[in-house]
Amino acid sequence: MKNMRKSTKRKIIVITCLLLGMGLIVWFGVFQKAGKFDTLQAVPVDAVFKVNITSVNRVHERLRQNFIWKSLKGYPYFEEYHSNLQYVDSLANAYPKLKKVLTDRPVTISCHQIGLGKYDFLYVCDLGKLNVIRLFESLLLTLMQDDEIRIKTMKDPNGEIRSLRWADWQFFFTIKDNLLIGSSSHALVSRSLARCKSKKEVESLVTSEDVTLDIDHRQLGKWIASIMEDSAVSDEFALLRNTRLMLQLSDKALRFSGETRTNSDKFSLLDVASFLEAGPSSLEKIAGENTAAYLSFCFPSFKEAENLLLENYKVNYPQSYNEMRKSMDRLNKFLNLDVLDVFTSWIGGEVAIIKPRLESDQDTEDIVLAVRGKDIDLAKDQMAYLAEQIQRKTPIREKAMEYNGHTIHYFRLKGFFNLFFGGMFERFERPYYTFLGDYVVFSNSPRTLAEMIKEYVLGNTLENNEKYMRLKGQLGNRKNVFGYVQTPNTYEYLYDAFKTGSREGLEKNKGAFLSFETIGFSLSKERGAFETQIIANYNDKAPDEYKIRELNRQFENQINKIEAGFYYPMIPDSVAVSNQTYYEYRTDQCIFKGELKDGIPDGVWCVFNVSGTLLGQFPYGKGKIEGVAPFFYENGDLLAQVSYKDGLIAGYKEFSPDGTLRAEIAFRKGVRHGMAKFYYPTGHLFCEGRYKNGRHAGKWRYYKVTGEKYY
Length: 711
What we know:
By secondary structure, the chain is α+β, with helices and mostly antiparallel strands. It has 21 helices and 34 strands. The strands form 4 sheets. It has a 20-stranded antiparallel β-sheet, sandwiched between helices. Strand 15 and strand 16 form a beta hairpin. Helix 1 (2-30) packs across helix 4, helix 4 packs across helix 5 and helix 10 (302-316) crosses helix 11. The protein is globular and about 95 Å long. Mean pLDDT is 83; it is low at 1-6, 18-34 and 130-140.
């Protein structure tokens, strides 16, 4: 059966090629004197995307030799295409003239909706001016005699359409002047003929590249809605109108360059950026390596952006503007201050939305807004002043949490972000916030902020990520908009967002998705549009590296939390200057209890989870942890032992629930430095390597449970 399917596929390829040849004969004999169409003129206007290929032969040859294409052939989505291309190669080798005639043609491939949630492709080929080659006609007749192939001619209001049927496979095609038009959808071919009949002029395509991609973002949004859950489809697609990109293919990356135009009906920060000069981004200084994706807007100063936003509201959306002004006036009167002025007075030249990696205790809706301050001290003062004024007018005290030397505050102005910035920020209903570097960082989840603080404290930021910094260097530093996607960290979101029926295909091709490890893009204003760059860097080892990183995360999770200060007690100044000898407090995740001496921790401090189960104990002396601090599983079994000297970690050991050694890590001056080993629950070595100044160094070795080298 499998061989029959392969044979059928190959016959289909032969027939398709010969149909094109037959089309050449018909064109030369019948339509030679007729008008000539561009392939784009035959594409219906509702295309999700159009791929314009100037020479199929050149593209095919480049793909055949390309490392990325060859690496992807093992994944189901690409396997069939690769197999078909190989067979076309063998066919072309057997018939050299066939290769020249059939493949060295301009082709446009477009995607269209043909029903509710259903999409199909349209293929349009410019046959050009070629001599009649009788070989095609005779070979086609021979194959039709040997196989059960039926060709039927159907009348259509827009012209004549032929149907080719072979077993369960059916393909519709027609010839319109110099164009061969085909699809597995009869309706698409008919719509294409109607498009030709209207003789609509299209923008001429001038390009130095072999492949050009045109995207209609409104149609793209509809297509994404067909494969993803409704909750996962946002209005962001409506902010853009269309994008045209030229592809530059190499063995290490896909690089697209072109232009993007915004939707004038949807004014947003994107439109604001198009009126302002570009600016630099320094988000990598605070964004952690756990970043799944981010979108950053850069401008010379926020004051200019603010004025443009307000002016646009006033002129184009007078009703929305008046409602906003009324809301702001009521708020200003209630607090007896100009809230907008206080809040925006400290904002500098960058506003970014960050989506963190999905952790087990996080929600898919968790998100971060990072706002760079022109003066971070001014930002702290103004935010403190705003909080103080709010607290004076309301009976509820400010919710504040301490985490590793950083205070997580609660911003209690409901709907402020959505009111001023628009729908893109509607998830920040009443956000939490903290200060990292030069940024005020907001989030709808305190857990997300705590995780970001942990990464920042440990130095696990994108600034220290070699692959990210190389990608940013490729894009350039001064842009209006920067975007970044780290595919291994986005996969869980993507899988969760896909509809159930689409997830199986995604999972089967997971490795292909992960292989495009880092994707970056930038937008720079250029004559009424955005000059656009997209770079997708390829790493064929990324799927294996992803598995290793996930395992490493499991081994390093506990020590990461300890190093980041998750379990360390924080003594507020009001308590430290008092005469208290005992202090107890709780956060959203832990309860801390212990004695004080001269306002600092003394003796053994205990940390419990919110249910009251003991998690760990810290032996304090003169305000510093000294000796061995044990940590426990919820059932009381030993989880880890951390050795401290002068308040700094000097060594770490972790154990499986049965007491088997799970991890041992060397430390120097409080950071990971030296040899580290992780073990399977059986006690067999899983991996070994070295840390240098807190980060992985050199080559790490991974082993199967049998002892064989894995990676």
